[in-house]
Design a protein that fits this description.
The complex is a heterodimer of chains A (110) and B (322).
Chain A: E1 7-12, E2 21-26, E3 29-36, E4 39-44, E5 58-60, E6 64-66, E7 73-75, E8 89-90, E9 92-95, E10 98-102
Antiparallel strand pairs in A: 1-10, 2-3, 3-4, 4-8, 5-6, 6-7, 9-10
Chain B: H1 3-19, H2 21-24, H3 33-45, H4 53-61, H5 80-97, H6 100-116, H7 130-146, H8 153-169, H9 187-198, H10 211-225, H11 237-254, H12 258-273, H13 290-306, H14 312-316
Helix pairs in contact in B: 1-13, 3-5, 3-13, 4-5, 5-6, 5-7, 7-8, 7-9, 9-10, 9-11, 10-11, 11-12, 11-13
Classes of the chains: A mainly beta (110), B mainly alpha (322).
Chain lengths: 110, 322
């Protein structure tokens, strides 16, 4: 995987904290990584509501992440929400210990 | 905390705030109205709103035909929560600025809230929990009544009682309010409800049953939720500011309460300790954002008033007394 094919290695599985979280930056985009069971999820760290930091949020069944500021909840696989917004999620590949994501180069920097 | 230090912090942060005017001034172009309302509360509480008449006029100019406002000033659809915050800033600002267009706008906003209330007393906004949403028009009506605005007075009193009733009926036996779809912890909702909606009723004649007891239980629940370091909700700066401000006005209205005074001091010290060089972020160590900085300046102003020997000094900063 190289930047040329759109995938960027951003983390190692061994680097996640005890709660299975890691905050990384790709370009100017903050991305929150959540390791839940055998899977890793990647979501733009800034809640579309008021920019709350999703890395500090509450993981719930789904799996989903609930923003710590005002409680908006997002599906970690799709970004879908019952609120009038959608979180940006990113495709993930895990290769050995490497965690890679693909970020659309045109994504708005938040 | 030493009051000279508080005064110095207000002065420093206010300088930073005005230096960032382009970021929050609606007179400079379309803006996020939640941020604008936060900023207008700063100029109100620092008694500088005379320098910002254009901002108030611009807020009036983006009011919709239905009397409400949208979260983004150039969006077409009114929503309740931000409309109430804007209306509250206008009615309080108008008492100082005395501009006919502001008074007209306030009356128009009253119409909006009377038109949008549901039959059970709640207001609804997809961006906020129903309880949180309801607290804001009720808070606006608290101030409408406290300042003796007469527009559709009987309708306002009826809607206000009904909104208060919805909130009182939904308190948990433990004293807090929760909404599983938004805030399972309940901290922010509880802080909002007792300060913004309920406690003013005690100054307006205690016409609604159980409000005093409801406020006392809510305040006690906030104390129980406070962490030993003084913060609330896992070091959430926003929610800690909410809880400290809420505790200050509620305890001043309910009467002397040493346990709450101690909680306020711990919480306020935590807020000051976690200030960035300029402003505040959403959590310790995060970059400054303008909305949290407005909340921080507001908390400083309210703490300053809370320490005033006159108990009405801090209550006045909610607009519940003239």
């Amino acid at each position: 995987m190289s930047p040329d094919d759109g995938w960027t290695v951003v983390a190692r599985l061994g680097d996640f904290d005890a709660r299975g979280r890691q905050l990384v930056t790709v370009g100017a985009v903050e991305i929150a990584l959540f390791r839940i069971g055998e899977r890793v999820y990647a979501v733009n760290n800034r809640c579309p509501h008021r920019d709350g930091p999703l890395i500090r949020g509450f993981v719930e069944d789904g799996p989903a992440i609930r923003c710590p500021m005002h409680g908006w909840r997002y599906d970690l696989a799709t970004g879908a929400s019952e609120r009038p917004a959608r979180a940006t999620v990113y495709p993930i590949r895990v290769d050995g210990d490497d965690v890679a994501i693909r970020v659309d180069p045109g994504e708005e920097v938040r | 905390m030493d009051l000279k230090r508080v005064d110095d912090l207000v002065a420093d942060e206010y300088r930073f705030f005005t230096g960032e005017r382009a970021g929050w001034s609606i007179a400079a172009g379309p803006k996020d109205l939640e941020l604008v309302a936060h900023a207008l509360r700063v100029v109100l509480h620092t008694r500088t709103l005379g320098d910002f008449r254009d901002e108030y006029r611009a807020l009036v100019a983006c009011q919709h035909a239905d009397g409400g406002w949208a979260p983004k000033s150039d969006d077409p659809e009114s929503t309740v929560w931000v409309s109430a915050f804007c209306a509250l800033m206008l009615i309080r600002g108008d008492r100082v600025l005395q501009e006919p267009s502001l008074a007209t706008s306030v009356r128009h906003a009253i119409d909006y809230f009377l038109d949008t209330q549901k039959a059970d007393g709640r207001w609804v906004d997809p961006r906020w929990a129903d309880l949180d949403t309801t607290s804001h028009p009720v808070s606006f009506f608290d101030v409408v009544l406290a300042l003796d605005e007469r527009h559709r007075r009987a309708d306002v009193e009826r809607a206000w009682r009904c909104g208060l009733g919805f909130i009182v009926e939904n308190q948990d036996p433990e004293g807090g309010w929760h909404d599983d779809d938004f805030h399972p912890s309940g901290v922010e909702i509880t802080a909002h409800l007792i300060q913004d909606a309920l406690v003013a009723e005690l100054l307006l004649g205690e016409k609604v049953t159980r409000v005093r007891d409801t406020c006392r239980k809510g305040l006690a629940r906030l104390r129980e939720w406070q962490a030993s370091d003084g913060s609330w909700d896992e070091e959430n700066v926003d929610h800690t500011m909410d809880c400290v401000r809420s505790s200050m006005v509620v305890t001043r209205i309910l009467g002397d309460d040493p346990a709450t005074d101690a909680a306020i001091e711990r919480g306020f010290a935590w807020i000051v300790r976690h200030k960035n060089e300029h402003g505040w972020g959403d959590f310790p160590g995060m970059e400054t954002n303008l909305e949290r900085t407005c909340d921080g300046i507001d908390a400083l102003c309210k703490y300053r008033a809370y320490r005033d020997p006159d108990p009405k000094a801090v209550i006045r900063l909610w607009g519940y007394v003239p």
